Amino acid sequence: MKVFRLARKKYATPLSGKGAAMYGARWNPIGVELIYTAQNRSSAMAEVAVHLTLATLPDDYMMLTIEIPDEVKIKHITEEELPINWQEFPHPTSTQYIGRDFVTENEYCVLMIPSVVTKGDFNVLINPNHVDFAKITVTSIDKFPFDKRIFK
User: Fold this and answer.
1) Phi/psi at 88 (5° precision)
2) Which tens digits make up the pLDDT trace of 122-146?
3) Domain assignment of residue 45, given as a range
């Protein structure tokens, strides 16, 4: 399976989850490493764009294409399995516990979880501390200029 990650050039590689652990996010509390990716490029872009304005738009974003081999175990979570308030902003701590438990249990390397930003799509979270993480590879890194019309 191919997944996509949009990141500033200086943070594009290596894949680590350390940035998510420093600040926490919807699916992980501070201290828990997760790599956030998406099923497609447009979802990866949307997940980043919701945090930006035209005034704060950097010009050094890179789109990573990441290959997850078929033998890597994936856990799927549906909307019905999520807390009722999972889409709220700011995010509730209950969603962070989902990522924390996923990493702590360490049964799966990859978690597919519904996207708040693009309904019907999934975020693909990768546990960099799982033994199968070594099988996951970045296959390309390409400059990704945002179309500024998105921010009008």
Assistant:
1) -65, 155
2) 999 999 999 999 999 999 999 998 7
3) 2-151
